[in-house]
Amino acid sequence: MAGAGAAPADDRVSAVIDEAPIGRLHVRIFLMCAFIMTLDGFDLGLLGFVVPAISAEWGLPPSSFGFALSASLIGVAFGSAIAGWMGDRFGRRTTLLWMFVIGAVGSLLTAFATDLTTLSVFRFITGFGMGGTIPNVISLVNEFSPKRRRPFLVVMVYSMAAVGSVFASLLAAPLIGRLGWESMFVVGGVLPLVIGAVAFFLLPESVRFLVARGRDGERAADLLQRLSGRPAGDPLLRAALSARPATDGSGAAVPSSELFAGWLRWVTPLLWIAFIGTQALVFFNSSWLPTLLKEGGFSIDVAIHATGLFHFGSVIGGLVISWLASRHPLSRLLALLYFAAMVSLLLLGSGVRGDLAAYALAFCVGFTVVGASFCLGAFASTCYPDTLRARGVGWGLGIGRIGSIASPLLGGAALAAGMSVDTIISTLAAPAAVCCLVMVVIARLQAAGGKS
Question: What domains lie within the chain, and their CATH numbers?
């Protein structure tokens, strides 16, 4: 036990960072994290854009790529969970950079895949690495952000993954047409290696992590001084640097069982349910929306354009929601997004046949579903203390991959079973409704005295 009057590192460091103005160091950190998330989204979404080209070259039906599409998501599940623990244990920056390099190497290897087995293995490696970057990016942005700007900045950086998906969609046609499908994975490997090298020099370790672990005192002092703009002898700055480490008293890191302590015993399982439902919605639509629209009677051009609007809607959703996140409680904002997603999916599955209606509803689904996924990661990061943040977010993302892994497989099974397109799309409203209910319950827990 710490002595009387000893404030935790969390509280004292937060007091300094929360009052700091946004400076050049903040901007540098947020830009690096935004670039990393953009390339994360680019790499994780690549296979969906190149399946038609690989299918034609290998002489295989598109339906045979279901497991390969899920392989990267399986990798994300393991990568998110493991890297969340590693980030809390060994540092956010260190873990992030290692995972980012692993994902880049996996993408480069994918360019040399010759069959479904090697394709699936290399996509698993890509997903493992890129999935491991996500909880640590979220943790870094959260921990470097002043409190008044934190929701906006976390949601904004997280939403850059959607920009990466749009970037992939714009590059796919010209690049595959000229250089073949392999070129997409080369780009997806080279760019992260370049950005990773830059981040090695420009991205600092979390100052809260350094102070909480009692390591690198000079580095922590310099970083906190640059973040806050306070002079070296400032009392608040000295108090933060002398705060006791956030351990269990024996020097060991806070155990993962603390994810279920206090109000978190309810919130952590509820967040997992929301992560599962959200990821199922995101990846089902990303994987099957073009096929479902085409099978539902729309032309291939309309199906492709509607899918593009789905991704465009996710980008706009990220921008709008990041702005709203600083003005409204995240739990209530999420509940509203899930409700709107449920309505949009019910309308899209109600037999809509007009092109404009399909475009509008696809945009709305992207805006609400993917927008909610960005907001959920940001909200989860606010529910955990610094010593558990990467683990809390990482485990949530990892457990959530149950939905993202299962949804492409379930989509293929539903089509193979002869289920109508309208029924399939309408059924997606169910997880949106469950997620909406989950956020209402969490909001009630907050109002009853939980963490705000």
Answer: 7-253 (1.20.1250.20), 257-452 (1.20.1250.20)
